[in-house]
Design brief:
Layout lengths: L8 E2 L15 H13 L5 E3 L11 H15 L5 E4 L6 H12 L5 E5 L10 H13 L6 E4 L11 H9 L3 E6 L4 H11 L5 E4 L5 H6 L4 E2 L8 H10 L4 H13 L1 H5 L4 H9 L17 H21 L2
Parallel strand pairs: 1-8, 2-3, 3-4, 4-5, 5-6, 6-7, 7-8
Helix pairs in contact: 1-2, 5-6, 11-12
């Protein structure tokens, strides 16, 4: 694979809108894709944890990736997870199918490439087999906490970068020292580090990280876009914004992703709060909290000139 880099900035982990009958709401998928792009997203991560990827069938996963690629129409690159199935062979086959949807890279879920009790050596053996049988398909990496949380070591990251197959890492350790080490280990390779943790984002950007790919990007991606663009030019304001983003994380994570969908309703994106991963209802007090958060975000828009 020749040298190629994913764009710097914000990569939202896309929500999946569902109808009240828990079917994918395709028109809302289109509207949501447009909204992410209009918000300044550098790329889109469809079929992610926030997409409720484990609750989708293979056909839905492929159709969702295909739809987002079509709707984005080349404005931004799209990636999607593809390592689903009972066996490694199943995951290889679905990865091949996912690559045909037009995504820029098929994302490997780190915890899907070995059992929890398997050591790192066996994980690497599986990855080597996977690379041999996936026809030079461009890949990404996602340290998804489910079904268990396998965080890559700096040594693994350096090896993965040396294969020239991996373009993007969604890093979920929340450990800024580990994140910095991974950034150092990927220099000169195709593999780039995108932080999923809002609290450590600013420090990771200063260390050379490529941007943000976390759940708060589903509520106010434009604030993360500003932070990625102006953290060097306006460091004091960036620090204050980082503090706000960090302090709001408990709200963002509450009853996620149902509350995230409710927040988008407040912004004028009309789709249900229905989820497959949970049956959360949003009560009046929670809606008031989301309304207050929306007002704070609007105040930041004025302050930042968005």
């Amino acid at each position: 694979m020749s040298k190629r880099n994913m764009p710097f900035g914000v990569w939202p982990v896309m929500l999946t809108p569902f109808t009240s009958y828990k079917q994918i709401d395709w028109e809302s998928v289109d509207r949501l894709t447009d909204w992410y792009i209009a918000s300044g997203a550098a790329g889109l991560f469809a079929v992610s944890g926030s997409s409720e990827m484990y609750e989708l069938s293979n056909e839905e996963r492929l159709s969702l990736a295909r739809r987002v690629v079509s709707r984005s129409a080349g404005k931004v690159p799209v990636i999607a997870a593809g390592t689903f199935g009972r066996t490694l062979e199943d995951k290889i086959e679905l990865t091949k199918q996912m690559s045909q949807t037009g995504v820029e890279a098929v994302v490997c879920i780190v915890s899907q490439l070995a059992q929890e009790n398997q050591p790192d050596g066996e994980w690497r053996d599986n990855v080597e087999k996977f690379l041999e049988k996936t026809d030079n398909i461009a890949l990404g990496l996602y340290e998804c906490p489910a079904p268990y949380h396998r965080v890559l070591t700096p040594e693994q990251i350096e090896w993965l970068g040396s294969t020239d197959r991996f373009l993007i890492l969604k890093e979920t350790s929340e450990n800024i020292n580990l994140i910095k080490e991974k950034i150092v280990r990927t220099k000169g390779s195709n593999l780039q580090v995108y932080n999923a943790c809002a609290a450590t984002l600013l420090e990771s950007l200063r260390a050379g990280g490529q941007g943000y790919s976390g759940i708060a990007g589903n509520l106010y991606p434009e604030l993360f876009v500003w932070l990625c663009r102006y953290f060097q030019e306006q460091p004091d304001k960036a620090e204050r914004l980082s503090q706000f983003i960090t302090s709001s994380e408990d709200i963002v994570g509450h009853k996620y992703p149902a509350c995230a969908k409710a927040f988008l309703n407040l912004l004028g994106l009309p789709f249900t709060t229905t989820c497959r991963v949970c049956d959360h209802s949003i009560n009046g007090g929670e809606m008031e909290t989301l309304q207050a958060l929306r007002q704070e975000v609007e105040n930041w828009h004025k302050d930042l000139g968005i």
